[in-house]
Specification:
The complex is a heterodimer. Chain A is built from nine helices and no strands. By secondary structure, chain A is an all-alpha fold. Chain A is extended, with a radius of gyration of 21 Å. The N and C termini of chain A lie far apart (about 65 Å). In chain B, strands 1, 2, 3, 4, 5, 7, 8, 9, 10, 12 and 15 form an eleven-stranded mixed beta sheet that branches. In chain B, strands 6-11 form a two-stranded parallel ribbon. By secondary structure, chain B is of the alpha/beta class. The chains are: A mainly alpha, B alpha/beta. The interface between A and B is large, with 40 and 32 residues.
């Protein structure tokens, strides 16, 4: 009785409304670009400071600034509205990552600090961290083996 | 020959009164003026949305008893449900009342399950008065089934908006202005839809099965009813149901509508395909439909709440989503 009904699934596939890809890609493009431009502006600002910061510190400072701004915007309930418009444009940059951590933390704060907030903080962002760490290990091993070829 | 699933209530089962309470977005919707009570702050001054949903459900049941001038001791049974895990909202609601309680869960079709169970109990003659109620809250459902509220993601065009509200019906077997005439208990229908955002497509086959069974077993055409109302198929899901019914040879006319479509201005309120949730059919029926029946605009109504019996775990394990729909018919006395 309840086997998958291919004819129906085809009908659903054909008839149900779909995302407007051109429009959403355009929005993602310009908002993502704007966020990156803001990041670049911070980089330029920090490099122009009289402290003569090394390049690594400048990029770390830029990242920290963007994360802080996102955390504040998420806390005030603004970032989800930006995300609803921008889609991948505001998910892919570091701001999207910060938003996923902060929003999960806010959501689960009510179940307590340890088992609620801390346990669920990375419920959305966790896979990103797992893939990030795993791929950096793989790349590290490749570099170690073929070091001679790169230098 | 399959056993008939349609039961006719020959002994009277009546609606004594109904009550509804909704959130700000529902109040602003097209049928907003038919709801009894509303609140402007969707957390109701509570520390969590779960507590807000419980407070909403408690005030609904209290309001329903006030409206009908009954004490908890006059009510023989409460059959209620919601969407949260272990129907936690309803269980915590019911600790406020000294009333025997049966919890019900059929996702968004819970209200139909409550009504059918309640009506069956009343026909035994051993019960006199039963409350059937359901609640749902956008923020609790969103968190349980989808993502954190503040996460900046996009909703798919097929997504639906969980109704924040609670609706309740006081049933009795002594008298009222509207009578329950029959019910059709649906079965699980699963055509293999796996997209948890596409609830309309997942529930439409269940709605088709129950609706066509009901009409065939009673031997009536869709025109027999002034209004045929499905639960929360949404705009696209309703179109699918119409198509499926035409293929069955029972085309639905202008008297067909959907609670999820009625409750919101789909485009202006940005709710995707429309409303959904356990409170979708219970607020629209107890608010809009019941009042229209009292004013005589509708004489015979068929309510077909639909539910996507979806679990986060089973979806991740690659299962498709089982759909269910039950039908309950009403008639002005």
């Amino acid at each position: 009785m309840n086997a998958p009904n291919e004819k129906y699934l085809e009908l659903v596939h054909g008839k149900m409304p779909k995302s407007k890809h051109i429009a959403t890609m355009f929005r993602a493009f310009w908002t993502g670009g704007t966020i990156c431009a803001i990041g670049q502006a911070f980089t330029d600002l920090y490099s122009s400071l009289p402290y003569d910061l090394p390049e690594d510190d400048v990029s770390a400072l830029t990242t920290i600034t963007l994360i802080l701004i996102t955390a504040i915007l998420t806390g005030f309930g603004v970032y989800d509205k930006i995300g609803a418009y921008a889609g991948a444009g505001s998910i892919v940059p570091i701001t999207g990552f910060a938003n996923s951590v902060v929003s999960s933390a806010i959501e689960h704060k009510r179940e307590g600090v340890v088992l609620g907030l801390c346990a669920n903080m990375f419920s959305v962002a966790g896979p990103v961290i797992v893939f990030g760490i795993s791929s950096s290990i793989v790349v590290g091993i490749i570099v170690l083996i073929f070091k001679g070829a790169f230098i | 020959m399959m056993k008939a699933s349609t039961h006719i209530f020959e002994k009277g089962v009546f609606i004594e009164d109904t009550a509804t309470i909704v959130g700000p977005k529902e109040k602003a919707g097209p049928v907003g003026k038919y709801f009894d009570k509303h609140f402007d702050d969707d957390i109701l001054g509570q520390p969590s949305y779960e507590k807000a949903e419980i407070k909403m459900h408690v005030s609904l049941i209290k309001y329903l008893m006030n409206k009908t001038k009954h004490d908890p001791k006059d009510v023989d049974l409460c059959i209620s449900g919601d969407l949260l895990d272990e129907i936690m909202g309803t269980s915590l609601t019911m600790r406020e009342f000294d009333i025997p309680f049966l919890g019900a869960y059929n996702a968004c079709a819970t209200f139909a399950e409550c009504l059918i169970t309640g009506a069956m109990f009343l026909t035994t003659g051993k019960f006199k008065r039963i409350i059937c109620s359901t609640s749902s809250h956008f923020s609790t459902a969103e968190r349980q089934y989808r993502f954190p509220l503040e996460l900046g993601n996009q909703r798919t065009p097929l997504a639906q908006w969980t109704v924040t509200g609670a609706g309740g019906t006081m049933l009795n077997n002594t008298g009222g202005k509207v009578r329950l005439t029959s019910c059709t208990i649906g079965q699980v229908v699963d055509y293999g839809v796996k997209d948890a955002n596409d609830m309309g497509a997942c529930m439409a086959p269940a709605a088709k099965t129950t609706l066509s069974k009901h009409l065939r077993e009673l031997g009536v055409s869709p025109d027999y009813y002034d209004l045929i109302l499905t639960g929360d198929l949404g705009e696209a899901g309703s179109r699918l149901l119409k198509r499926l019914m035409s293929e069955e040879g029972i085309p639905l006319g202008d008297n067909y509508n959907d609670c999820g479509v009625l409750i919101f201005n789909r485009v202006a309120q940005d709710v995707g395909q429309g409303g959904s949730g356990a409170a979708c059919s219970s607020t629209v029926f107890n608010g809009y439909v019941y009042k229209k029946m009292l004013s005589g605009e509708f004489k015979r109504v068929l309510l077909v709440p639909t539910g996507a019996l979806c679990s986060k775990t089973s979806i991740l394990q690659g299962e498709s989503i089982p759909g269910i729909a039950h039908a309950v018919s009403f008639e002005v006395v």
